[in-house]
Amino acid sequence: MNAPYDGDRGQGTGGAGYSGGPPVPPDPQQQPAQDPYLQSAYEPDPYWAQDLSAQDPVDEALYDRAAHPPPPPGTYQQPQPLYQQPPSPQYAPDPRIWAQTPPPEPAGPSRHLPYGDNAATTQFVGVDDLVTQASADRDEPDAFAHLFRDQEGPANPGHSPAAAQPEPAPSPAKSGGRASSLLKSSAVMAAGTLVSRLTGFVRSLVITAALGAALLGDSFTIAYTLPTMIYILTVGGGLNSVFVPQLVRSMKDDEDGGEAYANRLLTLVMVALGLIVAVVVFAAPWLIRLMSSTIADDPAANNVAVTFARYCLPTIFFMGVHVVMGQILNARGKFGAMMWTPVLNNIVMIFTFGMFIWVYGTSHESHMGVDTIPPEGVRLLGIGTLLGLVVQALAMIPYLREAGFRFRPRFDWKGHGLGKTIKLAKWTVLFVFANQAGVLVVTQLATSAGKASGKNGAGFLAYSNAQLIWGMPQAIITVSVMAALLPRISRAAHDNDPGAVRDDISQGLRNSAVAIVPVAFAFLALGVPMCTLLYSSSGPEAARSMGFILMAFGLGLIPYSVQYVVLRGFYAYEDTRTPFYNTVIVALVNAAASALCYVVLPAQWAVVGMAASYGLAYAVGVGIAWRRLRNRLGGDLDGAHVVRTYARLCLAALPATVVGGAAGFGLLQVLGEGAFGSLVALVCGGALLLGVFFVAARRMRIEEINGMVGMVRGRLGR
């Protein structure tokens, strides 16, 4: 602080300056005036004598007169002034004193400074320092601490100035607030997921180029999908949804910050997954028949699929270990590793299938099928697929060490909360079982329809490739936002704060809708040029069929994203039974509608109908889940605000879809469905779609769009 010069206050209490002669002795009859700065700030308090009847009406209504009866009228004391003006000085200030240049401050605490300052800790700041340090962030102490020192200093003469100096308040942790923290975490995860999905696209392109979109490609896709389905059915559902709230609670309640609980959980999962892998590798032929009887009935296709499956099924172990490590990091606020490490898996698989193409050529060149693929090629692809998951799991270890977690196997599972977690995970396992049952029906029908159609791009591989493109916005935006929100929602649910849970879910829905809604309409408008550009190596017929499947998936992205967000609310309350019943309904609708499409539609268009049935099933599930969560939160889920946001975004996307789709279709007809024509149609149609959507959304004054634009402008410094 800036310490004023002593001459400002003179040599006496009255401030009389030094006149050059001997000092004038004070008059003993004259009492020195009381220093107003030494009065107590609490006694007398003018508010104690205030008439209670003159208070605010609300406070008056809440005032308990029975316990604290007011004094009778007429007995109120007049409030006394807290401060008095100091008396005028007897002599005028002497300029020879107050106008002098201050002497240099001594190095040691040898001088008494006014206002009770400590000479050892007082800093004299010049103008240059004030200018150069104006933008620096400094931790400010209590602004009223000097008043406390002024009042208490003279009353305790034996109290040293150093002891009276209050300790500086601890500097608060700098934070941009809840929204900025969420955006930062979501941005890290979205960037990792974006790179992972982009490399996943490249992996899908290389797989399709190497094996084609016929029966050989379907055989590998089923073998590659089988470990994921088994993992989700056994352990994955509980790990993804139930164990995050449990890890958060153990970090909050346990003395060791939840480290012992995480070690027990990781040990239990490793043992369980090891047993599961041993069983499923032995049962690979039965699992292939369960997935697709069409492939199992073909000896060559069945042999290739079983061989691929026995290489791929051990990835279940490393998949589960990777997820548990990622959830431990998520519970500690480290969200990036789980989203970035899958990139390594994609790179290994891209390199593996690239080596296969380098040796044997593309499917279009070699015309390789289930009868002609060499065993060495199957072995190369199988080992590369397994190695990718091994690298992905091992890459999590440095992140865990950086977060302070050290894995130590612990087998003392009983009596430490894992039983409650497994009981909660029971309903989640049933949840994913119902979901995967619907996927199983679609797999059987899609492979049968693809073989019956006799055309490339009408089977299960085409369905999976289109679904991979369709699910990318969901994984980048919605999953990233909710992964950052889920620990916070879990804490709010644990603290029994339904208002905070409602606000976070509403925020997650509206923030994700800004990107999900226009992308869903973009799939509807530009699905064909997207697929003809990405999968042109599989032939124009297969690429065009995948484009139609992607268009059918398009609008289903909206209810699919909403369903994902709403179910996080149930998981935060450790309610896994309600999501199970909801998913049973979704799976039944999906299976029934897909079977209807398989029977009614021609074989070439059956898979297109199945893609549309997927979105229809989630639209039904959203209505049921929304009503149940609203009742759980006391009848309020901010529904009017959320529905209004989605409705306005859809209205803004309608004209954009018409304009962008017409432009893309016209350019595709003029320039052809090759790589160049598809690229021009996609770029021009997408630019028109986004431009019209943005203009319409701004005209409609959608607050989420305006907030996003303001945030981007702030980042750019405009």
Please describe what this structure looks like.
- 68% of the residues lie in helices and 0% in strands.
- By secondary structure, the chain is mainly alpha-helical.
- The chain is globular, with a radius of gyration of 36 Å.
Structural descriptors:
718 residues; mainly alpha; globular
Low-confidence stretches: 1-21, 47-55, 109-179
Computed structural class: mainly alpha
For the terminal residues, how far apart are their CA atoms? 36 Å
Amount of helix: 55-70%
Order of helices and strands: HHHHHHHHHHHHHHHHHHHHHHHHHHHH
Evaluate the radius of gyration: 36 Å
Count of DSSP-assigned helices? 28
Question: Would you report the number of β strands?
Answer: 0
Q: If you average the pLDDT, what whole number results?
A: 74
Largest sheet at a glance?
none
Give the overall shape, derived from the CA principal axes: globular
Strand residues, percent:
under 5%
Task: Itemize the secondary structure elements and their pairings.
Elements: H1 57-62, H2 95-98, H3 127-132, H4 145-152, H5 161-164, H6 177-211, H7 215-241, H8 243-253, H9 259-282, H10 284-291, H11 293-296, H12 299-312, H13 315-331, H14 336-340, H15 342-360, H16 363-366, H17 375-394, H18 397-402, H19 418-453, H20 460-494, H21 498-534, H22 540-553, H23 557-572, H24 577-600, H25 603-632, H26 639-671, H27 675-699, H28 703-716
